[in-house]
Amino acid sequence: MHLTPGASDTLAKLSEQDARTLLLELGALSALKSFDRDCAQRYAAELFGQRCTRAIIRARLVQRFGLSERSAYRLIDSVMQNCAKSAHVLAHQQRMLAAPYS
Amino acid sequence: MKTFLESTQEQAAKAKAIIASGTAELPKLQIEVNETKAAFTPFANQNHSSAAKSALHTAWSDASQALEIRKRSISAAQGILRDCEPFLEAHSDLAAARIAYCSARETVKVSLEEMANLGKLRAELHGELADLNARNKEALAAYGQNAITARLTGQPAIPTSKLIATLNADIESRHATLESVESMLISHEKQREFATDSAKQSRDKLQFARGQVAEIEYRDAIASIAPQIAVYLAAKGYDKSIEFAPGRERIEAANALLETELDQLS
Lengths: 102, 266
Known about the structure:
- The complex is a heterodimer of chains A (102) and B (266).
- Helices cover 81% and strands 0% of the residues of chain A.
- Chain A has helices spanning 5-13, 16-26, 29-49, 54-65, 69-98.
- Chain B is mainly alpha-helical.
- Chain B is built from six helices and no strands.
- In chain B, helix 3 packs antiparallel against helix 4 and helix 5 packs across helix 6.
- The longest helix of chain B is centred in the middle third of the chain and has 63 residues, at 90-152.
- The chains are: A mainly alpha (102), B mainly alpha (266).
- At the A-B interface, helix 5 of A face helix 3 and helix 4 of B.
C-alpha cells in the first residue's frame, strides 16, 4: 500500500510520531514504509534548501531515519533531480511573468 | 506659501480642465467652421464684393480662428501636463524604483549564492563518481579474475556480481543528478542575468526619480530665497559664478554666499 500525495500531506500535518502510531494501529506497514520515505525526502529537500552539502544530508538521513549510506545517497539524488525539475519550471514561470509578451 | 509640488498639482489640474473643456468644445467649433464655410462658399467665386459676402467671410475666419486657438490651448495644456506628471509621481516613483532595485539586487545575490552552493555540490558529485568508478573498476577486475579462474578450473561461468550492478546503478544515478545540477546552474545563471538587467533598469529609474525629487526640493528651496536673489541681482546684476543646481545643500550654500555678498554691499 503506497500513500497518495494527499494522504501523505494529511499525515504530514500530524507529528511524525503521531502519524507513525496511526499507521501502526491501522496495520498499514507498507504505508508506514512509504510515509518514512516521504518524511526522509521532505527532510532531505529541507536540508538541500538550506544549502547543506550532500555529505551532511547523507549523515543526517542515516542518523535520523536509519538509512544505509547508499540508500541515503540515492534518496538525495532523487530529491535533487526533482528540485531541478521544479526549479526549471519556476524559472520559466518567472521569466514569463516578467516578460509576458516577449 | 505654496510648495512647488502643490503649485504643480494645481497647474496639472488646470491643464486637465482645459484639455477636458477644450476637447468637449472642439466638435461644436468644427461644426461652426463647416457651417460658416458652407455659407460663404456660394459667394466665394463672385467677383464683386458685398457686405453680405464680407460678413460671411468674417464669420468663417472668426470660427476658424476660434478653432485654432482652442486646439493650440489644448496642445499647450497637454505640454504642461507632460511636464508636471514626472513631478507629481516623483515620490511614489522613487519608492517603487527603490523597492524594485532592492528586490532585483536580492535576486542577484540569492542566485549567486545558489550557484556557489551548486558548484560545491557538483564538486562533491564528481568526487563520489570518482570513488564509485574506482570501486567499479576493482569489482570488475575481481569478477574478471574469478571468471578466468572458473574457466581454468572447468567450473561453469559465474554470473555478474550484485555489487557491480549496484555500483552501475549508483553511477547512473550520480550522472543523472550531475545533469540536474548543471541544469539548475544554467537556470540560476539565466535568473542572475535577468535580475542584473532588471537591477540596471531599476537603478536608472531610481536615479531619474531621485533627480525629480531633488528638483522639487530645489525649487522649494529656491522659492524661499527668491527675495534675496531679487535684491542681489538688482544690486549686482547676473553673475555666472552662481550656479542654481539641484540640491538643498547647494541652495543653502548659495543662500549663505548671497547673505555675505549682501552684507558687503550694504
